[in-house]
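Record 1 of the preview.
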Amino acid sequence: MKRISVVSLLIIASILVGACGGATPTEAPPPTEKAAPTEVPSVIPDLGGQDVRIAVENAYPPFNYIDEDTNEPMGWDYDASRAICEVINCTPIFVEAAWEGIFEATAAGEYDMVADGVTITAERDEIVDFSIPYMVIAQYILVRSPEPDIVDQDSLVASDALVGTQIGTTNEAKAIELVGEDRVLSYDVFDLPVQALLSGDVDAVIIDEEAGKGFVNKNPGKIMLLPEPITGAEELGFVFPPGSELTEAVNYAIEELRADGTLNALYIKYWGETEVAFDLGGQEIRIAVENAYPPFNYIDEATNEPVGWDYDACRAICEILNCTPVFVEAAWEGIFEATAAGEYDMVADGVTITAERDEIVDFSIPYMVIAQYILVRSDETEIVDQDSLVASDALVGTQIGTTNEAKAIELVGEDRVLSYDVFDLPVQALIAGDVDAVVIDEEAGKGFVDKNPGKIMLLPEPVTGMEELGFVFPPGSELTEAINNALGVLRDNGTLTALYQKYWAEE
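->
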């Protein structure tokens, strides 16, 4: 259902970048199938100065490239990898590598890590391991400037234009999906299709937005990105040999660099700050909340007022967009159907983006990354992990219609799952002894633990991989794009990080 991992705010709000991918769209992203990333360690890793061989292409600006003035390699990947090694005490050794075969070479131990804006996919996950995601991506179309005939995806498909891509990338897969293999020219190195576009050998290139911006900046007035994305959101991660112990250490460093603002600063260094692009003229926005999901939204016991992350984030969004948030308490069950029917302009309730929900409503770009955990009573001795829960006859509490409910049923079967209308009810049932465990997001679980000290606790291991949270809108809502813009602004100015620290400071 709903939950943020510590990766939560990393840069995910509107970062939208990636090789073999691009910037995020207004359409809802489907969930990425991949293995659950290694959990962030509780002890600070210290690699003792260990050399880490990091594969880079040096042909994918602004991630990695050769500076024309100094002839030195540089880019986001270099800066981020050095910052990671400062955190975990290692020495980065950058090795220029060809994209083709890079996963097989890494799996064979030729490289300790790949930093090349790599999109996390299920197919690649069968060969290598990935870090937690550090950016969210989507793909765009790059054309010559001006280009009167190719103005969007439909006009590209309808034309006989040739499309350039790089071999073995998700860009290549998308190009073939759009126009067929006969119209796709794939190159070994990523800058070659852009050179082919400039020389007229191809008429368009499928590329991630931020890398596309890098090429546009290097060729002013010659090429341009079309405004609409052609994919949903995907995720970028660093790559490691299967079972590498380095994965866990790098995950820790990513979290640290997110928390201290380094990742955000690097994003602004290479892509600049997001500009406010919308003014809603004071428009009222009806925002559905449950008020039963701390710390996202809940009733403060001392003041009897509704508070939480959702309230603060939505108010900050409306300050950016010049709108007026009108919060409406709503039941979870039926909330998507009601939103699709126009009863609400937006839902702010820590909602996990799924393909099934995407058929009913639209989603914002993801603002947090999520996973699910098991909540038990503090004196619980028999249920210590997922396996012991499954092997027991324990009853599991969840909320109706959530991904928590789906996970609980997957683990123990319908007969052992008790589902409730309101999210705090399964937690109350756990405390009362009516159920023995609750499947819940980690951060919401921490909220309930804080409200019930000494009574309940979260087990340490997640029971799912990473998922994404987004705001919800009626299909086709013009508000989606405005909210996406505001999320980018709030990420860049540090507001999202500050709100995360406000509600989960100890993390």
